[in-house]
Design brief:
By secondary structure, this protein is an alpha+beta fold. It has two domains: 8-209, Alpha-lytic protease prodomain-like; 219-287, Cation efflux protein, cytoplasmic domain (Alpha-Beta Plaits). Helix content is 63%, strand content 10%. The protein has eight helices and four strands, in the order E-H-H-H-H-H-H-H-E-E-H-E. The protein has helices at residues 13-40, 43-69, 84-112, 119-140, 148-177, 181-209, 219-227, 262-275, and strands at 2-3, 232-242, 248-256, 280-287. It has a four-stranded mixed β-sheet, covered by helices on one side. The two termini are 16 Å apart.
């Protein structure tokens, strides 16, 4: 049997700093939006404040998950706490969906009961949001492909920047035309943007929670490439699943003609798996001429 526990790709310290800065800035912005939203009866600002509060919670959970994933395995948790990143991604998606429901209900209420608000104040606050969300999204842009949590944080903050731009537009329209219903309509647009950006995160988180093969990996491609290794006669009992949002594991039975060249075969297989971003693999070798228990060879 071959076993490999390579060096894990931990998130750089600068990403931890990015989480801290993003959380502090978004808390400040939530307070600004909430105050101005209540003073101006703006569902656009209040809904966006609620969404940004959800982002603060999501960012805090993501930072917590990253820290947990770096803890060493124990006798009780032999894979460590890497799966925390998957669970947090799922929780974050659920939080955002609840936020969407709140925004939609409030926006519909405002459509039937539009309220007068100060368009200039809405524009000013939303413009602050454009700056803060754009900056915090930029903090994660370099690392978004390294972890599903980081990618989720980046997408949410980038979407927030676009949403804030939408609120600026709504404020300008209100100032020019006096159409206060635009505020409620922008709330609905915000809900749709959040829903669109959240859906893939939700589906992928559910799949990883159920130990599905990660979306960027094809089990047929993996099997096909391993079958090309010289000396490999057959492959069965192959399982691929996510240890975390950025680590993938594989187990497989490898059928060979004899064990004389097993170490070289194992080396070649590990090399291919590393190229496929599968860095944690456990291989069991079997002799082809000896009948497997389930005739898998």
């Amino acid at each position: 049997m071959g076993n490999e526990h390579p060096h894990h790709h931990h998130v750089e310290p600068e990403v931890n700093k990015a989480f801290f800065r993003a959380i502090i800035l978004n808390i400040a912005f939530v307070l600004i939006e909430a105050v101005f939203g209540f003073l101006n009866n703006s569902v656009g600002l209040l809904s966006d404040a609620g969404h940004n509060l959800g982002d603060v919670i999501s960012l805090a959970l993501s930072a917590f998950a990253v820290k947990m994933s770096q803890l060493r395995p124990t006798k009780k948790y032999t894979y460590g706490y890497r799966k925390t990143t998957v669970l947090v991604s799922l929780v974050n998606a659920i939080i955002l969906l609840v936020t969407v429901g709140f925004i939609i209900s409030e926006s519909i209420r405002k459509i039937y009961e539009p309220q007068i608000l100060n368009g200039l104040n809405v524009v000013i606050v939303a413009a602050i949001g454009v700056v803060i969300n754009s900056f915090t999204a930029w903090l994660f842009i370099r690392h978004q492909n390294k972890d599903l949590n980081i990618k989720g944080a980046y997408l949410h903050l980038a979407a927030d920047a676009l949403v804030s731009i939408g609120v600026v537009v709504a404020g300008i329209v209100i100032m020019i035309s006096g159409w206060y219903i635009v505020d409620a309509l922008i709330g609905l647009v915000i809900a749709l943007v959040i829903l669109y950006s959240t859906w893939n995160l939700l589906i992928e988180s559910i799949k990883l929670s159920l130990d599905a093969v990660p979306k960027d990996i094809s089990i047929d491609k993996v099997s096909s490439m391993l079958m090309k290794v010289e000396g490999v006669q057959g492959i069965h009992h192959i399982h691929i699943w996510a240890l975390s949002t950025n680590e993938t594991a594989l187990t497989a039975h490898i059928c060979v003609e004899d064990f004389s060249n097993m170490e070289q075969i194992k080396h070649d297989i590990k090399h291919i798996l590393n190229d496929l971003e599968i860095h944690h693999s456990t291989l069991e070798f079997e002799i082809t001429t000896l009948q497997c228990e389930d005739n898998g060879c």
